[in-house]
Design brief:
Blueprint (H helix, E strand, L loop, with lengths): L2 E12 L2 E4 H5 L6 H8 L3 E4 L6 H16 L8 E5 L10 H9 L6 E4 L5 H14 L5 E8 L12 H4 L5 E11 L6 E9 L7 E2 L13 H5 L6 E2 L1 H22 L9 E4 L4 H11 L6 E2 L2 H4 L6 H11 L8 E8 L3 E8 L2
Parallel strand pairs: 4-5, 4-6, 11-12, 11-13
Antiparallel strand pairs: 1-7, 2-3, 6-7, 8-14, 9-10, 13-14
Helix pairs in contact: 3-4, 8-9
The structure holds coenzyme A (COA).
The site of coenzyme A has 22 residues, from helix 2, helix 6 and helix 8.
């Protein structure tokens, strides 16, 4: 019998510090109203000195294992998506591996920025469908706060980011057409726009990788052409969402819950409006958590499953857009 993957457990963890819009006004020339009106964000969570990307990821992992009724020893492989590596090398997945004492199973970091979780989901699903592994931990983990310009110069980027990780435990099951599981995942990229949302340094393409001049020019902070990103996001997200549903022979009306990447509430409102998706079918948490990049979608999924707003048999559509550019969508049947 062919195999399919289902999400057996979810978990999440966010930074311990609540950073409100009012807090940001102390460091930069901005206003609570500007941030909330343009982005929908009221507060975000940033890590404190006791937290690291891998400890956020570990906490989310333990919750996912508990929900699945499994133990660390049951995991066959770890895929971790992040744009904010804990160190230059090795990847954050290795520090998660250490944190949860994962024996000698393989682990892989995947870099597809805000679409990273869906890229990792597609790969985890493929590893299961091919019979390579039976249980794959798929994590999105991000710590932005330690790399943001909190002065007025960085205000366009800094106000949107939060720290958080989400984990899902993928498990092999036999294919049953109406049964639960990941039905389709579609991923895309446009590297020609890589420099429109990026952090230039440190860079292995230059010697030294970072110097005083680059620090002065703030090249170690993320830079974004906000409007350009916005325009592409509201076009690409509906496109890939419909492509993915079509590939699964599903219609928009079949979907019970839509989860969008949490970059800007206005982007998600525009996407929902374009597709005529009713508000009650969309779940957002950016108001509380900001943009946790690769962590955003698995955190949303974990919140929805913990609150009981996901019933077995329901169809969930997940869609993201991010730096790279990358964009991706998945549809799965919960259960
Ligand atoms: N507070 C106050 N003013 C701000 C500000 C802030 N935090 N950030 C930018 N501004 C100012 C700008 O300096 C500019 O001022 P000017 O007109 O005097 O030059 C003005 O607001 C408009 O700037 P702009 O960047 O055009 O704003 P915007 O309406 O496009 O909103 C974003 C900025 C970041 C909210 C918006 O572009 C966005 O959400 N883009 C997509 C973000 C995204 O999806 N990122 C992907 C992450 S995965």
């Amino acid at each position: 019998m062919p195999l399919r993957s289902r999400i057996a457990g979810t978990g999440m963890s966010v930074g311990n510090r609540v950073v409100t819009n009012a807090d940001l006004t102390q460091w930069m020339d901005t206003s609570e109203e500007w941030i909330e009106q343009r982005t929908g964000i009221k507060e975000r969570r940033w890590i404190d000195e006791t937290q690291r990307p891998s400890t956020l990821a570990a906490e989310a992992t333990y919750q996912a294992l508990e929900q699945a009724g499994l133990e660390v020893g049951d995991i066959d492989c770890i895929l971790l998506a992040t744009l904010s590596g804990e160190h230059d090398f090795p990847g954050t997945s290795f520090f998660l591996h250490e944190e949860i004492e994962a024996g000698d199973i393989p682990c892989i970091d995947l870099r597809a920025q805000c679409s990273g979780f869906l890229y990792a989901l597609q790969m985890g699903d493929a590893l299961i469908r091919t019979g390579t592994h039976r249980r794959v931990l798929v994590v999105g983990a991000e710590v932005h706060s330690t790399g943001l310009d909190v002065s007025t110069e960085g205000r366009d980027v800094t106000v949107i980011f939060g720290d958080g990780a989400g984990a899902t435990l993928l498990e092999a099951i036999d294919v049953d057409d109406d049964g639960p599981g990941v039905l389709e995942v579609r991923c895309h990229a446009a590297g020609k726009h890589a420099r429109r949302l990026w952090t230039e340094g440190p860079s292995s393409a230059r010697m030294p990788r970072i110097d005083e001049k680059m620090l002065e020019e703030k090249k170690h902070f993320p830079h974004m052409e906000g409007r350009f990103v916005f325009k592409h996001a509201v076009t690409r997200m509906p496109e890939v969402l419909l492509e993915t549903l079509g590939a699964a022979s599903l219609k928009l009306q079949d979907v019970d819950l839509f989860l969008f990447h949490q970059a800007n509430l206005r982007i998600n409102e525009a996407v929902a409006q374009r597709l005529e998706i009713p508000k009650e079918k969309v779940r957002n948490n950016i108001q509380r958590l900001g943009n946790c990049s690769a962590g955003a979608l698995p955190i949303l999924l974990a919140e929805a499953s913990r609150e009981g707003s996901l019933q077995p048999g329901q169809l969930v559509s997940l869609t993201a857009f991010g730096s790279g550019f990358t964009w991706a969508s998945a549809v799965l049947r919960w259960g």
